[in-house]
Q: What sequence folds into this?
């Protein structure tokens, strides 16, 4: 039986030792969405939200979230990220889509950083729009793809 990598000999949580792993270029893309009233999406698109430019602030929040992932998720290694990009799109009616792409050259993957980036951006959109609408729905949030590392590439749907 294969042992669990995140438990020590006493069965307690530990951060996995990655010192023997070979560095490689790694990427991950995570996506999420926010479903809202058409008037809320329109306010975001027209820059009419009183707190300011929602997408600009959410973009910075997503980047900051990726950089701070190891502060939020206990077993994540602090990583030197080489790139973080947040993209927004919408369906023209009531859904805002967020895509977060994170890159590094390192010994462990950036899936959690991409998921955190997408989540932080979505939470920021909610925070900036909650005065307009409190019942905005966030999600689903998911890993779309990843490249590099021992486990190889992953593409959702393949």
A:
């Amino acid at each position: 039986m294969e042992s669990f990598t995140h438990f020590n000999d006493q069965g307690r949580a530990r951060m996995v030792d990655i010192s023997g792993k070979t560095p490689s270029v790694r990427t991950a893309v995570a996506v999420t969405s926010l479903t809202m009233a058409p008037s809320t999406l329109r306010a975001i698109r027209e820059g009419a939200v009183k707190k300011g430019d929602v997408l600009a602030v959410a973009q910075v929040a997503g980047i900051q979230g990726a950089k701070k992932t190891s502060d939020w998720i206990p077993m994540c290694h602090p990583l030197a990220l080489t790139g973080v990009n947040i993209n927004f799109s919408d369906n023209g009616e009531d859904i805002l889509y967020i895509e977060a792409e994170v890159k590094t050259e390192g010994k462990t993957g950036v899936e959690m950083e991409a998921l955190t980036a997408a989540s932080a951006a979505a939470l920021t959109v909610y925070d900036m729009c909650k005065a307009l609408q409190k019942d905005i729905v966030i999600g689903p949030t998911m890993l779309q793809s990843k490249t590099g590392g021992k486990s190889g590439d992953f593409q959702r749907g393949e």
User: Anything to note?
Assistant: The longest strand covers residues 24-35. The CA atoms of residues 38 and 94 lie 5 Å apart.
